[in-house]
Design a protein that fits this description.
The protein is of the alpha+beta class. It contains eleven helices and 22 strands.
């Protein structure tokens, strides 16, 4: 009997405290529980939360499915280059700010992972930085109006922020004399008492104005004050400094942003699709209570101005597909929007995962046919010619691996 090429796949919901209450469970038809937050929906083979493949006989975790026949499932090139599914696909609902974070390069991840193993730090320990030996470039496409921090401001804009903020004026000389590294290192190495002493006057000034709706979301004051909402600690988060140092970026639905190794960033608010290398390596810099390793953070951060690049993707109107190209070799993200008059024809170079966000679609490969509705996902094995069509309208996001030339 011929092996199937198309399978239903079920992801895993992650209930982090920064998530929303309803978007993800409504999307994937999961019961909503009172006082529960739903932050991410994972589709992938990461060992922390592997997805399940649904076969005629059983459900099998995606990591095991890949291991059972890597060349047939992944394709020869991806199997030999990566040895596993190289990406992790997610839906995110960001209600509260995430940690400021930086992702390491592969070289740094290998060194850091082995060093922490030698020190006997458990993979699940809260002070563990490196969960694997991989880098974690990532691409997000906004599903709503979306706000994030992304890289250091251009020098003139950073100087303006420090000049316009009386409580931070004293940092001007540090930045002018020691640059981005000197400025960031100074505030990140402050004791908690020093952080409190510097930031308390700022907070006392801006928080009442925030409560009075006096700030626009494009200002560092808005997000700095918002970070204090429902905080029960007297200690002030040092991540507030970074809000004044970094670009505050607002992207609209359908626009994308790529986060490369070393670029500091933080998601602030909104819904997005996210595709990244199959890794969970995060070095944090504040805005949440999670562990901060200042030495490792500084070692892995790019201390240079970042001029944000918003990606609109390469559109192929004939097949209804928009491809968001990046430098990442681990993954490629595309959006497929079809009506009854437009059909998408594709050939998979490795495992592809498709999730429908709106509408209904039918995926066809020779004698195989599978229909997906809103919130449902399919996995397509390597080297499969397939067609996606709809009788109404459908919006699908697809994770794949770019063809290696």
């Amino acid at each position: 009997m011929k092996e199937k090429s198309i399978y239903r796949i079920k992801g895993k919901v992650q209930n982090y405290d920064w998530g929303g209450e309803s978007y993800i469970p409504n999307l994937v038809s999961q019961e909503i529980k009172e006082n529960e937050t739903y932050a991410e929906y994972w589709l992938g083979a990461h060992l922390k939360a592997p997805s399940s493949i649904i076969t005629a006989k059983e459900e099998i975790s995606l990591d095991k499915f890949v291991e059972n026949n890597p060349i047939e499932n992944l394709g020869k090139t991806v199997a030999s280059n990566f040895g596993k599914l190289p990406y992790l696909f997610k839906v995110l609902d960001v209600k509260k700010m995430l940690s400021i974070q930086v992702h390491p390069s592969i070289e740094a991840a290998i060194i850091g992972y082995e060093k922490e193993n030698e020190l006997g730090i458990s993979l699940t320990a809260k002070n563990r930085n490196y969960k694997d030996k991989n880098h974690k470039p990532e691409l997000m496409v906004a599903l709503s109006d979306f706000w994030l921090l992304h890289g250091f401001l251009e020098a003139s804009k950073l100087i303006k922020n420090l000049t316009d903020t009386p409580e931070l004026n004293f940092l001007l000389d540090t930045f002018k004399n020691e640059g981005y590294l000197g400025l960031y290192k100074k505030v990140m190495e402050y004791t908690q008492n020093e952080v409190n002493n510097v930031l308390k006057p700022l907070i006392d000034r801006i928080y009442p104005k925030y409560l009075n709706n006096e700030f626009d979301k494009s200002t560092p004051e808005y997000w700095s004050a918002k970070s204090l909402v429902n905080k029960d600690s007297e200690d002030i988060d040092r991540g507030i400094f970074s809000i004044y140092f970094f670009n505050i970026l607002n992207v609209s639905k359908g626009e994308a942003v790529f986060q490369d190794a070393g670029v500091p960033h933080a998601y602030l608010q909104g819904l997005n699709m996210e595709l990244m290398a199959n890794s969970d390596n995060v070095l944090r810099g504040g805005l949440t209570s999670k562990h901060i390793d200042v030495e490792e953070l500084i070692k892995n951060t790019k201390f240079e101005e970042t001029i944000p690049e918003v990606l609109n993707g390469n559109k192929n109107l004939a097949n209804g597909e928009t491809v968001f190209k990046t430098k990442a070799k681990d993954f490629e993200l595309s959006k497929i929007e079809l009506s009854k008059d437009i059909i998408n024809n594709s050939t998979s170079s490795s495992i592809e995962i498709l999730i429908a966000l709106e509408g209904e679609a039918t995926i066809i490969n020779n004698d195989e046919t599978l229909t997906i509705n809103k919130g449902e996902s399919v996995l397509i094995k390597a080297n499969t010619n397939y067609t996606v069509k709809t009788s109404t309208k459908v919006e699908i996001y697809k994770a794949s691996v770019p063809k290696i030339e």
